[in-house]
Amino acid sequence: MTSITFVWSELGGDPARLAHVSTVVREGALRARLPVRELGRACVGACALAGAELAARRAGLARVPGVRVDDGAVATAFTSERQLSVDGRAPEAFAPLSRLWRTADGWVRTHANYPHHRERLLKALGGLPQDPGAVEAALAERSAREVEDAVYAAGGLAVALRTPEEWAAHEQAAVAARPLIERGRLDGTRARALPPLHGAPLLPAAGVRVLDLTRVLAGPVATRTLALLGADVLRLDAPHLPELPDLHADTGFGKRSALLDLTTDRRAFDELLAAADVVVTGYRPGTLDRFGLSPEALAERRPGLVVAQVSAWGAHGPWGGRRGFDSLVQVATGIAAVEGSAERPGALPAQALDHGTGYLLAAAVLRALTEQSYDGGSRFARVALARTAAWLMEGTGAEEEDGEGGKDREIYVGPEAWLAETDSPLGRLRYALPAVSFDGGPGDWTRPPGPWGSDPTGWASRVERAG
């Protein structure tokens, strides 16, 4: 069931805490055949509750602050990349070659927003020019599974449309049997205690140093959320892999952005790691292991660390090492078939797998920090878009569950009430306000995004730890 009760249980949270959560239900928000609104509410609500719990722990409060989840705020945050504008300019969404295409026997979804993915797609199709008409003609003559295999072999991204039944027969669908949030201890190390909180707003992650090794979109949503809650988040990117400007602007609130090449700047990375509390990675499983960045290796080098990982397909199965994005996972797992028609596949009203999984990952980090304050240990958390997709599909037709502190009901009339504007080094930004909210907590980020890779490679905070 797509409820906060289930998510909080997956996070290992005390069920009594759920009484502190109330909801504003807005009919019409994130409208879909699948329970997207309920998924968003559950992910955001659990994340906010994890933040409130850690804030109470650090501030010495007798009671966990109340959490209020508003479907309007959730719907706006789940479409934050669409709500963004820079000096009045609407964001660039998908590139011309990132779309659904008809094939000889069905449909295929490609993803070519990044130049290197576009080049690999065109190479796999026989060295075609960058012309949608030429790509359309070539794909119309081939089967969807043939295209999927050929593009993957070339290092590109393409996925054949599958029905839920076809996906269930695929070996990768076994990801549904794994926990929604895989989490656990890596060792018995005594954790470094975070200092107590004083004053307002309550920032549960204040002084927590987060190394952000993520890219579009779930990972950056997670670290953007941790930045909202006070963490010192430093995003690191390789100089040869620039981020898409609008997506950087959308997910860069509260963070700093620096460039670092792990193949040549290992000493600089090791210095950052030596003072880090959390490492969040968003690359394919195993990709960073050659740099000594597996959870076990990181915890050995930095005892007491929290390592959080997000991937598209999960860490196991034949697709575990494949690249993937929200739109591709929707097509592969049957979501696009469910949301579409006999004439054409559909899509969710938001990149809900990305956003939902991002909030799940942030919640797992916050819960790990709380658990460390009691019994220490390096910790890991792992989530996957395909596992979130399975959870969403399981919730088809589900009624809203009890276990929350109360519900008000209103009608969703659009995102305007949850949008704000600010000046930034990138220009005048319109952006979605945070959906994660609890009594006494922050209402907005403390800094807007700056240019990609423009910050020094070092920590901003200088907070002493005990222990």
Structure description:
This protein is of the alpha/beta class and about 475 residues long. It is built from 16 helices and 16 strands. Strands 7-13-12-11-8-9-10 form a seven-stranded mixed beta sheet, with helices on both faces. A three-stranded parallel beta sheet has the order 2-1-14. The protein has a three-stranded antiparallel beta sheet with strand order 3-16-15. The chain is globular, with a radius of gyration of 21 Å. Mean pLDDT is about 95; it is low at about 465.
Percent range for β-strand residues: 15-25%
Q: What helical percentage do the residues reach?
A: 25-40%
- Mean pLDDT, nearest integer? 94
- Globally, the shape reads globular
Unreliable residue stretches: 463-467
Which strand order spans the largest sheet, edge to edge or round the barrel?
7-13-12-11-8-9-10
Rg on CA atoms, Å: 21 Å
The largest sheet, given as strand count, sense and whether it forms a barrel, is: 7 strands, mixed
| Head-to-tail CA distance between termini | 41 Å
Count of runs of 4 or more consecutive helical residues: 16
Tell me the structural class: alpha/beta
The tally of strands reads 16
Give me a quick take on this structure.
The protein has 467 residues and is of the alpha/beta class. Helix content is 33%, strand content 16%.
Name its key features.
single chain; 467 residues; alpha/beta; 7-stranded mixed sheet; 3-stranded parallel sheet; 16 helices; 16 strands; disordered C terminus
